Amino acid sequence: MPESTFGLRRYSENKIVNLADGVQLVSFLVLAAMMIGAAIGVVLLSNIVYSAFLLALVFISMSGMYILLNAGFVAAAQILIYVGAVNVLILFGIMLVNKRQDFVPLKNAWISQVATAGVCLGLFALLSTMVLATPWAISSLTPIGDEAIIEIGKHFFSDYLLPFELASILLLMALIGAIVLARRDYLPDEILGRDRPSEQPSALTLPERPRELISGGK
Amino acid sequence: MDFANLAAQLNAGTILPEGIVIVTLLVVLVGDLIIGRASGRWIPYVTIAGLLGAIGALYFQWDHSDSIAFLGSFNGDALSIVFRGVIALSAAVTTLITVRYVEQSGTPLAEFLVILMTATLGGMFLSGADELVMVFVSLETLSISSYLLTGYMKRDPRSNEAALKYLLIGAASSAIFLYGVSLLYGLSGGETRLSQITAAILSSTGDQSIGAVIALVFVIAGIAFKIAAVPFHQWTPDVYEGSPTPVVAFLSVGSKAAGFALAIRLLVNAFPTVSEQWHFVLTALALLSMVLGNVVALAQTSMKRMLAYSSIAQAGFVMIGLVIGTDAGYASMVFYLLVYLFMNLGGFACVILFTLRTGTDEISEYSGLYQKDPLLTLCLSLCLLSLGGIPPLAGFFGKIYLFWAGWQAGAYTLVLVGLFTSVISIYYYIRVVKMMVVKEPEEMSEAVKNYPPIRWNLSGMRPLQVGLVICLVATTFAGILSNPLFNLANSSVTRTQFLQTPIAAIARPVAQIESSADQL
Q1: Which residue has the higher pLDDT, B51 or A9?
Q2: Which of A7, A15, B43, B56 is the most buried (most CB within 10 A)?
Q3: Cα–Cα distance measured from residue A37 to residue A33, given in angstroms and rounded to the nearest whole number
Q4: Phi and psi at residue B411, in whole multiples of 5°?
Q5: Residues near B423 by Cβ (< 8 Å), separated by ≥ 6?
């Protein structure tokens, strides 16, 4: 039982704890290697489907990290939301688009790649300096482990009640917006024909004419 | 904690205005669902009534002393009331000028208004949010509704492009903002309430830390995206050009006001330890916005793009008030936003009307409009001149107050650059006015020659006319009769707790604790 293994760490300083620390260290190293390897794969592989599946692997190893930190609920939420929803959505997107386009290598692409690498490394250096230099206020409370769900529920219905309720409005609106964007509209031609002196080709467009750059190209 | 006790602690009456907006939203949504397309006749009026009802509820909350609600998630103090009022009012005027535009493009009106009201709701909650989670959820409510509104004309490639661009840049800036906020959470040892973050940071990590500076930079990136300050403005011209014009009107007033409310509350409350740094960064952003916005606006040929750059520049002017950080500075900011609401929405109402009648928004097509449509010409001229800051109009008094407050506080560079760039701005505003008024009849543009007869009795035209006249009257007289607005702006600042308590007072007890800890 992994939970009791990690739970033991808090109680005393005998040999079992050292063993648990060892397990923790090994699993951390495995998860970290998995995460970094998969993340590099996401960026470097040219087949986008592989990238999407590797992204799922990144998320799963991240949820493993949360389990190591005694945050079981966050780990479950991570898998449910990122792997179950976000990543599946990405895969759907890839499959629905399904556009085979040959990749034309750009000239001098290495300049932008070097620039990107420079910016990323700089940002990484800055952030890691910051993480190491800042005296973080680390909470002295012991992690509550599986009782976290109860505690989170209490917060949702006391001091985080308002954001929790506002999120329901946000979801309602996202639902409506998704329907508006995705549904098939009937085109009320009679509205257009009646008032518009110069009839435009299609409804559901901006009333402004496109600029001449676009229309002159035809 | 039993239920009755909890209900009393929540102080839920503070969000009554938002509650009214939510109820209106649901009424519009369900009403449209039951009745169908015929509901388009009454839906805009229900929306406007709901938004005005929310403003009325805000008026009655002005004297409430107990402003903290929902155990610290929300703070309905005087400053938030003014900003929520500005956002609700801008949504109400936007609804007036929306009806005809949406009907003529053949898109459903009810959904448009529902999403607009959700955006308003997000903005209103953002103005009063006093806690990091609340700040982020309300910011996302505002942003996601804005993306949806931007892409509402879904068969137009320009609208699609605008929505996609706005979504991608917006999502990136939200992520950066969230990273900054998470750093704040870590630095303060797990504190999310804005009013307590500073004390927690001081007691745990000390006065100055690189972490606070990085958190500040990330948070400013998120806010500057919302208010479209240079160099976070790249989305603005394309999004403004491709979105439906009423949406642009709301984005340039309501969404910006929400961004400024967030900026004041977050920066003053959570970053007093790096106060010099944020003043420096915001000064740079204000200078860049004023210069770049005004100079690039000179070269625009499309009215919507010109107003986009003009709104970038206006955001730069408003930031002067934020940077100097005195009472007069904040009050002048609120005052300027109040008059900016009317003059900018008036300008957009005119652009919408012209577009609906002629189907174009090129500046050159406006030439000779005076002969065909004097009311439109008058309204657009006054709004543009007011935006430029020509004396008897509202914008002049707004700018004078901003610059006066800046001069008092010793921000000479900002004020001088502001004065200089407003002179530049007058040039491009007057160019449009000259185009409309001065041209001889034979120089009239094609669009104006074919100008349709003016018919206000078409469906949806009447609200547009009402909106136009309201903005015209407010822009003309809000300057001369500015005393009520002036008092409103001033008292909103003097009655707001967190602007009145000097930062030193928050910092002092903590410093004492630290020094006593050192002695031990």
Answers
A1: B51
A2: B43
A3: 6
A4: -90, 70
A5: none
Tens digits of residue pLDDT in B233-262: 999 999 999 999 999 999 999 999 999 999
* Nearest chain B residue to A209, by CA: B360
**Distance of alpha carbon B347 from alpha carbon B468, whole angstroms:** 9
Q: CB A196 to CB B188 under 8 A?
A: no
- Our CA angle for B110, B116, B366, nearest 5°, is 95
Give the three-state DSSP class for B231: coil
The mean predicted confidence, pLDDT, of chain B is 90
Lookup: tokens for B204 = 């745990």
Any residues with CB less than 8 A from the CB of B325 and at least 6 apart, and which? Answer: B268, B279, B409
Q: Hey, which residues does B302 pair with through a beta bridge?
A: B362
Complex ipTM tops 0.85: yes
Alpha carbons B21 and B7: distance in angstroms, whole number: 21
Cβ(B162)–Cβ(B241) under 8 Å?
yes
Nearest CA among A63, A42, A62, A44 for reference residue A52:
A42
Cβ count near B368 (within 10 Å)? 23
Instruction: Encode B205-230 in three state secondary structure.
Output: CCCCCHHHHHHHHHHHHHHHHHHCCC
Closest CA to A204 of B241, B105, B242: B105
Enumerate the residues of chain B whose CB falls inside 8 A of the CB of residue A181.
Answer: 148, 151, 154
Task: Tell me how far apart the alpha carbons of residues B385 and B382 are, in angstroms, rounded to a whole number.
Answer: 5
Contact A163 B134 (CB under 8 A): yes
Collapsing DSSP to helix, strand or coil, B445 comes out as coil
How many other C-beta atoms lie within 10 A of the C-beta of residue A142? 9
Q: At B193, phi and psi to the nearest 5? A: -80, 130
Q: What does the pLDDT average to over B440-462? A: 85
Q: Which residue has the tokens 């024909």?
A: A193
Task: List CB contacts (< 8 A) between B456 and chain A.
Answer: none
List, for residues A58-100, the tens digit of each pLDDT value.
Answer: 999 999 999 998 888 999 999 999 999 999 999 998 888 867 7
- Rounded to two decimals, the pTM is 0.90
Q: What are phi and psi of B96, to 5 degrees?
A: -60, -45
Q: Which two tokens stand for residue B44?
A: 């805009």
pLDDT of residue A185 exceeding 80, the answer is: no
* Strands B74-75 vs B68-69: parallel, antiparallel or unpaired: antiparallel
Indicate the angle between helix axes B78-105 and B327-358, nearest 10 degrees: 10
Q: Which residue has the tokens 């769900």?
A: A149
Tell me if B152 sits within 8 A of B244, measured CB to CB: yes
> What single-letter amino acid sits at A4?
S
Q: Please tell me the distance from the alpha carbon of residue A216 to that of residue B39, in angstroms, as a whole number.
A: 40
